[in-house]
Write a structure and sequence with these properties.
- The protein has one domain (7-52, 72-214): Rossmann fold.
- It contains six helices and twelve strands.
- The protein has helices at residues 12-21, 29-48, 83-91, 143-152, 170-179, 209-214, and strands at 2-5, 53-59, 64-70, 74-80, 98-108, 115-123, 131-135, 138-139, 160-169, 185-193, 195-196, 202-203.
- Strands 1, 4, 5, 6, 7, 8, 9 and 10 form an eight-stranded mixed β-sheet that branches.
- Helix 1 (12-21) packs antiparallel against helix 2 and helix 2 crosses helix 3.
Length: 218
């Protein structure tokens, strides 16, 4: 499985991620959402380089230009709710993509840090033979991403899967490597952090991305 860690190179993505991590700027939800959106755009551009294209002639007012157009059918799938601005960042580049949405949440056992991932909702076109972009800003354990993927497989078998997250734990990276098809999956992450705490939050991470983007939930 190909794994691209953007932290291995200096770029604007790292600057946006640093701002998202900073507790002194996290109270600005607009900046937080905008940075998720911009990181989505950067990742979308890099992923676009790996896709299939076809030659196409375009008639201008002065002649004919020989260009390339995207040949792959792309489905952009997002895990709600923190994934919404990430999705919009990808969609602003893959503007002709079909779209899927999966609702996944942690259901904690009473009085315990243990939880199960529950899938509550899915809306998706067929993904049969298409390139699936499965995006979620935080990849903590990898379990919710796997369940979202399995839910989407009820809509067909994709040609290829690109999993994209802004921050992943090393545990989640290992989990994705062992639970997704090795030959037809690539993982794209803004940074890989080494730890998960007792609540399965990434350390140093940045906290709850959904709460920081949209407000605390009860």
């Amino acid at each position: 499985m190909k794994i691209t860690n953007f932290a291995n190179e200096n770029s604007l993505l790292g600057q946006y991620l640093r701002e998202m991590r900073d507790i002194n700027t996290q109270n600005n939800r607009l900046v937080f959402r905008n940075n998720i959106h911009r990181i989505g755009q950067i990742m979308a551009y890099e992923i676009s380089k790996t896709l299939q294209y076809k030659p196409i002639d375009t008639t201008t007012c002065l002649g004919v230009a020989h260009e390339a157009a995207l040949a792959d059918d792309v489905v952009l799938a997002t895990v709600l709710r923190a994934g919404l601005p990430f999705h919009e960042g990808f969609l602003s580049f893959f503007d002709k993509a079909e779209n899927s949405f999966v609702s996944a949440y942690r259901q904690y056992k009473p009085g315990s840090d243990e939880f199960e991932i529950k899938i509550e909702y899915i809306a998706s076109p067929s993904i049969e033979g298409k390139v699936l972009l499965l995006v979620d800003p935080m990849l903590a354990t990898g379990a919710s991403m796997e369940l979202a993927y399995k839910a989407l497989l009820t809509k067909g078998k994709p040609k290829y899967v690109h999993v994209a997250s802004i921050i992943a734990s090393q545990q989640a990276v290992d989990y994705v490597k062992s639970h997704f098809p090795e030959a037809t999956t690539s993982l794209w992450v803004g940074a890989i952090d080494s730890e998960l705490n007792a609540h399965s939050y990434i350390v140093p991470g940045l906290g709850d991305a959904g709460d920081l983007a949209y407000g605390v939930k009860e």
